[in-house]
Design goal:
There is one protein chain. By secondary structure, the chain is mostly beta strands. The protein folds into two domains: about 110 residues, no CATH class; about 150 residues, no CATH class. The chain is built from no helices and 25 strands. The mean pLDDT is about 95.
């Protein structure tokens, strides 16, 4: 593998179609698409300062360094790409990628990031921005800290563990999502989704967990959660108190206690849902 160290690259497509090259402590200055169509590239402690650095790239490893504010739309249409210990300041990173690994990475301006990607692994990632991971599928996530609304809209086949999501409208229109040992805070959680599992989670949500076809919950706590489960089919066990429950569609709900239970016979078949209070795990 050829090595390039302490170099500065400028101009459009500066290293176009680079193959089997290691870049160490290099800077990609002004000029779009510096590594477009690259293959077998390793980057260590490099900086990207302009748009579209890694488009249509394959087999890329990025360790350390920074994607700067104007490195917008940085990694699109790429395959087998790993990022480790990188600070990604630019928005719209990662679009339509396949085989993507991101670890120990900070994304403080992650607006419209991780869209339409598949086969994705995230570990120890901090992100702030709306619409993270829209329409992604086959994701394995561990220790994600997210501050941003509308994440995982339309996502499928997702497993999330040991994470904190401070996010309104999380998991809308999603399918086959499992969330374990997580904290989720935000309104309207999970609407219009299918096959959602929540295991050992702490949840705070106004009108959360509604319009879900197949909601499974075990070992969960619902602090300050109101008007929950509307038009959802349930297999749920809640530890402790639920502030209010409104018109679940069917199934079984066990809880320690329920503050207000709203069951309107003109809206749902009230006999289709079994509600049991006094539940103690």
């Amino acid at each position: 593998m050829t090595s390039k160290k302490d170099m500065t690259f400028t101009g459009e497509r500066a290293e176009f179609m680079a193959k089997d090259i290691e870049y160490v402590s290099c800077t990609f200055e002004d000029g779009e698409s510096p590594l477009k169509h690259s293959d077998g590239v390793a980057l260590e402690n490099c900086s990207f300062k302009w748009k579209y650095p890694l488009w249509y790239s394959k087999n890329v490893s990025v360790k350390g360094g920074r994607v700067c504010e104007m490195g917008r739309a940085g990694i699109w249409y790429s395959e087998n790409v790993s990022f480790e210990g990188v600070k990604i300041v630019a928005p719209k990173s990662f679009r339509r990628c396949k085989g993507l690994s991101i670890t120990n990475t900070c994304m403080p301006f992650a607006e419209e990031t991780l869209w339409h990607c598949e086969d994705v692994t995230l570990k120890n990632v901090a992100a702030k921005g709306d619409y993270l991971a829209m329409n992604c599928h086959d994701m394995q996530i561990d220790s994600l800290t997210l501050d941003g609304n509308y994440p995982f809209d339309g996502a499928k086949d997702i497993i999330i563990k040991n994470s904190v999501l401070n996010s309104k409208d999380a998991f809308w229109n999603s399918e086959n999502v499992t969330v374990e040992n997580c904290t989720i805070i935000g309104e309207y959680l999970g609407w219009n989704s299918k096959n959602m599992k929540l295991i050992n989670c702490k949840i705070e949500s106004l009108q959360g967990l509604c319009f879900i076809d197949g909601l499974y919950m075990r070992g969960c706590v619902t602090n300050d959660t109101t008007l929950a489960f509307e038009y959802s089919s349930l297999d749920c066990e809640i530890e402790g108190h639920i502030e209010s429950v409104k018109n679940p569609l069917s199934g079984i709900l066990r809880a320690g206690s329920i503050g207000e239970l709203i069951m309107q016979s003109d809206m749902v078949d009230v006999t289709a849902t079994q509600i049991i209070t006094g539940f103690a795990p």
